[in-house]
Amino acid sequence: MEYSYAIINSDSTFSHTLRTQLANFKEFNCAGVAEHSSEGLNIILKESPEIIFINLNQNAETCFMMVLELHQYLKHLPVIIGISKSKEYAYDAIKNGFFDYWLQPLNEFDIRKSVLKLQKRDFSSQCTNTTLCLKSYKDYRYISTNEIMYLKADNNTTDVFMKDGSIISAFKTLKTFEDRLPASFMRIHQSYILNTTYISRINYGKSTCTIKNNSTTLPFSKSYKSNIDEVKKILTKSTITTFN
């Protein structure tokens, strides 16, 4: 598994040292380097790196504010790793949901441990079989989210399209499901949420996605194009790509 990363709040020495250490691991691929948090925020929103390395030796409070601001724009935050010469900001890093905290000078052992933690986390998330409960009056229906291909808004109700071809109507808005479904589900249109594991084709020219083994095409809108870009990036990592 390869992870793209960005370095935030970095001077040239810090960036060079960190990139030299990470070069020893084939899992890491640099997406950008920012000298301060505002520039870093732009890189994160533009490049969507999976990992953010933040230098906490200077302007740490500004960096923590940047992390809070990310919640306004991203449904799922990247993995954040803080780096410092001391443990001074370790507690604040934990409070802000940092994945790890590295002490300088950097060493291969700490980096390797983080890589293994990342791989273990990704494997666990892939194996998760989430169950969705659809409640209607006194009727409770339990379905595996792995069996859901996509959801379509129908006024104040939602139609759930299943892998077996059945359609289940739920008396909830699409927004309700958007906030509760696993990370593999992505809003691509005002009327659609798509389980990205069922995507077989993304056509940017026609602004459509095609469903596997089904040939159904769903539109994606310009306002959700960033979600499609993120999906394409994730899918590309696990595929063999050829260009005509």
* Rg from Cα: 20 Å
Helix-residue proportion: 25-40%
Mean pLDDT: 88
Query: Which stretches of 5+ consecutive residues score pLDDT under 50?
Result: none
Strand order of the largest sheet: 2-1-3-4-5
End-to-end separation: 26 Å
CATH fold assignment of the largest domain:
Rossmann fold
Coarse shape: elongated
Question: What class, by secondary structure content?
Answer: alpha/beta
Q: Give the biggest sheet.
A: 5 strands, parallel
How many domains make up the 3D coordinates? Answer: 2
User: Total number of helical segments?
Assistant: 7
Strand content: 25-35%
Protein name: Two component transcriptional regulator, LytTR family
InterPro entries: CheY-like_superfamily (IPR011006), LytR-like (IPR046947), LytTR_DNA-bd_dom (IPR007492)
GO molecular function, one term: DNA binding
Short description:
The protein has seven helices and 15 strands. It has 244 residues and is an alpha/beta fold. Residues 132-237 form the HTH LytTR-type domain.
